[in-house]
Specification:
Blueprint (H helix, E strand, L loop, with lengths): L1 H19 L4 E13 L2 E12 L9 E7 L5 E8 L13 H7 L10 E9 L8 E8 L11
């Protein structure tokens, strides 16, 4: 009985670590700044993330939210890890891209860059931003015949 209680205690102590990593990826760092190019001004956010899931991921999808001085979201954009950026291209079919193998999976423990931006003319004034991991689907294991 005592051994069972110790094992249960260890499992309960381990639970918060798993819950904190539930997204499957962690944003390691990011920076944002105003830039200009091609006749437009935009706020560009670039950063690095890490696959913390313990298995290969098909992609990591992130949401970047622009915040006003009260912390309210005034604009948002979604982006992907660098190897999967093509999934955000409006003229391409994401399902076809994934099936074709043109989107390289992110190995367990691998780090990769990401980027996203807001056009100044389309974005209300904001004072800060935040980055959230919103999707981390597991890569489909390949059969030995592939």
């Amino acid at each position: 009985m005592r051994r069972r209680a110790i094992v249960l205690g260890v499992l309960l102590l381990a639970a918060p670590a798993r819950a904190a990593d539930a997204a499957g990826a962690q944003v390691l760092e990011h920076k944002g700044r105003w830039e200009s190019g091609y006749g437009a001004q935009f706020y560009n956010v670039v950063g690095r993330l890490k696959n913390t899931s313990g298995h290969e991921l098909r992609y990591v999808k992130l949401r970047i939210e622009a915040l006003d001085d009260h912390g309210n979201v005034v604009a948002k954009t979604e982006t992907f890890n660098e190897s999967a950026e093509a999934l955000a291209v409006p003229d391409l079919n994401p399902e076809e891209l994934l099936k074709s193998g043109k989107v390289k999976p992110l190995p367990a423990d691998a780090e990769e860059r990401f980027r996203g931006s807001f056009l100044k003319e389309e974005t209300p004034p904001f004072t800060d931003y935040r980055v959230k991991v919103i999707e981390t689907p597991e890569a489909t294991p390949r059969s030995p015949s592939e």
